[in-house]
Q: What sequence folds into this?
């Protein structure tokens, strides 16, 4: 099922544990696509074995609800395949897209999606429409056993670079956009002219979600404060990248945030830091590349404990 902006859905299923697992940045392309010609050649067993390993590392293997905070893969067919395999472990899967999910990765995709990332997203929505107990959130909220989970991708807003005025970087929107188009997502996110344009689409959805959810998930980090970054990424060589990892969310949305919002799950930062900010627990659990995850051996499903 797909839950668009302000769409809601409720499930009551007292047969399952309350606690909720979360993960993100599976990047299935890195793990499963390399040695195959078509997605059909990827064996479900290989995907299952990979997640089984991660499941065995996890603290609690009984949980039946999984939230995935974006970047499942860069291929819609593979994403569906991964979701269907994960259904062997989880009864309910709730997910959002990340930037990689809507990358236009080759000339065939340029034709198929008219060089427009949003059309790739629309195709994924069509493919998810009839999947049983799998929910793609694009500004909608699903409530499972009384816990409401709101989700949308979010996007970076450029606020980080202006806040910290990096001395090594001459910044203005035009200059940032040149870099974005040359080195960053702008190479593969198509149909959007400015690096921060997508944020404008996301802001209204976020206002609604933070007013009405117990848990919000976005792909990008919802604060732009340096203290919430891994100190490694404050070094000169990385620092100009940080703006593409976060947005001014919790501060900017302060008037809309309902006190029942207790958790914010984000992805994208493969070496993220969990933190508490303004009474919201902000958590991250990326699988990342095969080096980062040691082919899954270093990864686990983390859980949110529901009182
Ligand atoms: Fe990402």
A:
């Amino acid at each position: 099922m797909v839950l668009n902006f302000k769409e809601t859905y409720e499930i009551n299923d007292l047969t399952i544990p309350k606690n909720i697992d979360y993960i993100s940045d599976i990047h299935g392309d890195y793990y499963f696509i390399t040695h195959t010609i078509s997605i059909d050649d990827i064996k479900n067993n290989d995907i299952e074995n990979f997640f089984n390993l991660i499941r065995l590392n996890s603290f609690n293997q009984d949980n039946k609800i999984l939230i995935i905070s974006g970047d499942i893969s860069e291929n819609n067919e593979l994403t569906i395949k991964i979701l269907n395999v994960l259904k062997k472990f989880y009864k309910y899967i709730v997910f959002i897209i990340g930037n990689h999910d809507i990358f236009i990765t080759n000339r065939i995709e340029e034709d198929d999606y008219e060089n427009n990332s949003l059309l790739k997203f629309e195709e994924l929505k069509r493919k998810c429409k009839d999947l049983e107990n799998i929910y793609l959130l694009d500004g909608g909220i699903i409530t499972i056993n009384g816990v409401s989970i709101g989700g949308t991708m979010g996007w970076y807003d450029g606020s980080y670079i202006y806040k910290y005025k990096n001395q090594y970087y001459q910044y203005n929107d035009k200059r940032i956009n040149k870099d974005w188009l040359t080195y960053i997502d702008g190479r593969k996110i198509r149909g959007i002219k400015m690096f921060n344009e997508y944020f404008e689409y996301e802001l209204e959805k976020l206002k609604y979600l933070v007013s009405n959810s117990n848990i919000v998930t976005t792909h990008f980090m919802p604060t732009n404060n340096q203290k919430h970054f891994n100190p490694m990424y404050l070094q000169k060589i990385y620092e100009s990248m940080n703006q593409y990892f976060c947005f001014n969310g919790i501060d900017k949305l302060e008037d809309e945030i309902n006190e029942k919002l207790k958790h914010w799950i984000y992805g994208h930062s493969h070496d993220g830091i969990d933190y508490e900010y303004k009474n919201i627990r902000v958590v991250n659990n990326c699988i990342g590349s095969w080096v980062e995850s040691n082919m899954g051996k270093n990864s686990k499903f983390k859980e949110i404990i529901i009182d």
About this structure: The first helix runs from residue 28 to 33. The longest strand covers residues 65-69.
